[in-house]
Design goal:
Elements lengths: L19 E2 L5 E5 L5 H14 L10 H9 L6 E7 L2 E13 L4 E11 L8 H15 L4 E4 L6 H9 L15 H9 L7
Parallel strand pairs: 5-6
Antiparallel strand pairs: 1-2, 2-3, 3-4, 4-5
Length: about 190
């Protein structure tokens, strides 16, 4: 069964999956649903292990369930399968470009399991996301990559992606985020 790009988010949580055919025989994609939260969490842990960031994973399945599939979902997940075996995932969300005046897609995580890499699955994830971005009238598809991951950088550049050398990413997290937020003084009206 082919998925329609016109479907609304969260219409995928049904017992019969809407599979997205790819150009690779035996490899299919589908949007995740609530029942996939344990798999998504496992993929996140495997990605952290690959990136030597295991200690930074503090997310729980309950948090993922609430934030991906709750009343207000903050991101979407596409899962990839080699036959019936889970092969990887892409977690993404919309951002917005004031200069372009359009939304974009920000790819937070793209992960293909060890042993399944080199089969073109990552390319299928990215080409589908590019197609989805075009369909949703997005101006950009963006992501970050760790500087040491030369194989991924070469792969992304082979697709036509270019590094934004004039930009440096900043982040506030944990206690620093709380402290800055708590420092905002406001008056009630």
């Amino acid at each position: 069964m082919m998925i329609s790009l016109n479907m609304k988010k969260n219409e995928y949580a049904m017992s019969e999956f809407n599979w997205i055919d790819t150009s690779i025989e035996g490899f299919k994609l589908r949007f995740a649903n609530t029942a996939d939260v344990p798999l998504i969490h496992r993929f996140i842990k495997e990605l952290a292990d690959f990136e030597n960031l295991e200690d930074e994973v503090v997310s729980t399945e309950d948090q993922l369930r609430q934030n991906l599939f709750g009343d207000r979902s903050y991101a979407e997940v596409i899962l990839g399968f080699e036959g019936e075996k889970p092969a990887g995932f892409a977690l993404f969300f919309h951002n917005f470009s004031t200069f372009v005046g359009k939304p974009g897609i920000y790819l937070e995580d793209l992960f293909v399991k060890q042993g399944m890499r080199g089969n073109g699955y990552g390319r299928e994830f990215l080409t589908y996301l590019a197609r989805l971005a075009n369909h949703r009238d997005c101006g950009r598809l963006e992501w970050a990559v760790q500087e040491w991951n030369e194989q991924a950088i070469g792969f992304y550049e082979s697709l036509g992606a270019r590094q934004k050398e004039e930009w440096t990413v900043y982040q506030l997290a944990g206690n620093r985020l709380k402290e800055l937020g708590n420092s905002f003084n406001h008056t009630s009206q």
